[in-house]
Amino acid sequence: MVKEPIFLKPVFKERIWGGTALRDQFNYEIPSDQTGECWGISAHPHGSCEIINGPLKGKTLDQVWESNRELFADQEGEEFPLLVKILDANNDLSVQVHPNDEQALELENYPFGKTECWYIINCEEGAEIIYGHYAQSKEEFAQMVEEERWNDLLRKVKVKPGDFVYVPSGTIHAIGKGIRILETQQSSDITYRVYDYDRRDAEGNTRELHIEKSIEVSMTPHQDVALESIEEVKEGLTSKKLIEENYFTVYHWDLDGGVTNEVEDNYLLVSVLNGAGELIISGNTYSFKKGDHFIIASTISNYELNGQAEFIVSHPAK
């Protein structure tokens, strides 16, 4: 039985809005100067991460999900439930929306919709996201889209480093230029674009829009969700629970020194946003640094963290 952390090799995605921050800020080897996404923890068919240590080295996360379910608290389901990304919005992302589980199954024959959340790692001063809209009915929404009244329709919100944004399925949204985020989401890649600023790719083509599906799945009227974070200090670790909802629980951890934690009947997805340190399990020491992504399996009873580091940590709903 595997009783060591599972370190993962990220998968990178080139995007029309991507840049070089994933290289410049996280020291990743990126495929081009338009790299928009680092899939740090993924078993998705469009990019499953390879394991780079231990007895499972060389296997992909989707393979291990199939063959070693004991590492994941014997969780049921055909698909690994979550996907963790770091995004570099060197330019504005398209205005988009994602379906819920029922809609994804009906429209795309895929078991997961896409509820997600964002932790703002850093951003340019004055940076904005699009979060929600002002239409009061689907008919009004459709009319405003048809008339391209984007300034009247779309709700803009300023963000700053350390902000947390919950984006349930059905929420119209877009990450704005100059923002780097860590995204925790359901393991789905279904995106319906509403508006893409009429921009063209290197071949002069516009990207496909999905207006009818967008209108069908959008929350109308938009409703904000009230969030309440809970902070707990244990030894050298300050843990802030950012959200607990139907698909995931997400924490921000700030480590300054050392802490010993127990694994409580689940597994943890860990991404290192800053700093470095050591993870000690059963007397064995594993180093981690900024940009690393690893899983603490449910077969591990307890672990020790030492160092100065900042993490986003999540686990699926039990």
TrEMBL record:
Q: Cofactor stoichiometry and binding?
A: Binds 1 zinc ion per subunit.
Task: Please tell me which top-level EC class this enzyme sits in.
Answer: isomerase
What cofactor is this protein dependent on?
Zn(2+)
Q: Which residues form the active site?
A: R193
Q: Catalysed reaction(s)?
A: D-mannose 6-phosphate = D-fructose 6-phosphate
Top-rank taxon, per record: Bacteria
Keywords attached to this Swiss-Prot or TrEMBL record, sorted alphabetically, are: Isomerase, Metal-binding, Zinc
Q: Where is the Mannose-6-phosphate isomerase cupin domain?
A: 240-316
**Residue sites binding Zn(2+) per the record:** H98, E116, H173
Which InterPro entries does the protein's record reference?
Carb_Metab_Reg_Kinase/Isom, Man6P_Isoase-1, Man6P_isomerase_Firm_short, MPI_cupin_dom, PMI_typeI_cat, RmlC-like_jellyroll, RmlC_Cupin_sf
Q: Which NCBIfam families match?
A: manA
Return the similarity comment: Belongs to the mannose-6-phosphate isomerase type 1 family.
* Protein name according to UniProt: Mannose-6-phosphate isomerase
Q: What is the lineage of its organism?
A: Bacteria, Bacillati, Bacillota, Bacilli, Bacillales
Which gene name belongs to this protein?
Answer: manA
